Amino acid sequence: xxxxxxxxxxxxxxxxxxxxxxxxxxxxxxxxxxxxxxxxxxxxxxxxxxxxxxxxxxxxxxxxxxxxxxxxxxxxxxxxxxxxxxxxxxxxxxxxxxxxxxxxxxxxxxxxxxxxxxxxxxxxxxxxxxxxxxxxxxxxxxxxxxxxxxxxxxxxxxxxxxxxxxxxxxxxxxxxxxxxxxxxxxxxxxxxxxxxxxxxxxxxxxxxxxxxxxxxxxxxxxxxxxxxxxxxxxxxxxxxxxxxxxxxxxxxxxxxxxxxxxxxxxxxxxxxxxxxxxxxxxxxxxxxxxxxxxxxxxxxxxxxxxxxxxxxxxxxxxxxxxxxxxxxxxxxxxxxxxxxxxxxxxxxxxxxxxxxxxxxxxxxxxxxx
Length: 369
Hints:
There is one protein chain. By secondary structure, the protein is α+β, with helices and mostly antiparallel strands. The protein folds into 4 domains: 36 residues; 83 residues, conserved putative lor/sdh protein from methanococcus maripaludis s2 fold; 86 residues, Elongation Factor Tu (Ef-tu), domain 3 (Beta Barrel), CATH 2.40.30; 113 residues. Helix content is 29%, strand content 35%. It is built from 3 helices and 24 strands. Strands 3-12-15-14-13-16 form a 6-stranded antiparallel β-barrel. Strand 19 and strand 20 form a beta hairpin. The chain is elongated.
């Protein structure tokens, strides 16, 4: 009897333990499901966009609207340089002086020649007036008046010649005092005080302030598809800046540019902040058609791109509704979009926005529109 009672009690105990364990597992499972649902990140997805209009992408450099090499046509030692690289100068400001003792000596000679020629001219003029009156009074012959007239003309010519020599000396003297042709900034200093200045040798380089443009080369296969005044998008990666510009000039010859046609794209004045001449720039020009351009460029927003060391990627949605970081190779940027060269097909979805912090393998739920 006791044995039967003990066996029933043991069975009852095991049954109770089994129910408790089953209840615990069920409760744990429900908690896990709730936690899993709570940790799911709601995301918005999109597919890559193809460029709706063909775009010509070319490379160029930022440059000043006007650049001048300050040089002289006289040979002489540089006696003074009043500016240094980075200085702002005004139009007409004295920049460089060249030794001019020989020219000053020549000017003194021409001054003496002018004085002598002027005296001879005044004397010949008086003789001309006197003999003209005598001829009217029939006191001088026509031959005498003719000779005096020739002397007068000769003296007048010598005076004019001396004055023109003085103008020539003054012009040469101006080349020993080099001034700024416009308001600008000194960007290069190519000589120092004491160096010999030779005709045509640049001493300073001056760039016009307040105006920038991009100079770029267009291949001959595409030059017929762009026009002056057309819009162009300029991307300067050095300062992470995108600018809406306008084509202001198109070269009509490629004879001296290796078959490339040079164009100028004007940068608005309000966009010049932070730019420096020499910066590299990418220029995108919408065109009607272009044989070199693929109309199926895969474009994604720059904001979707993830950077890790030197790798770039973006998040896609895996088969099990998890975030999958896909490494991609990028091409050129165009405004706030960037081209994906490889790693993402044109019909694949990628995550453009997430209501939480994404990581590889995170559970995601696509937000329905």
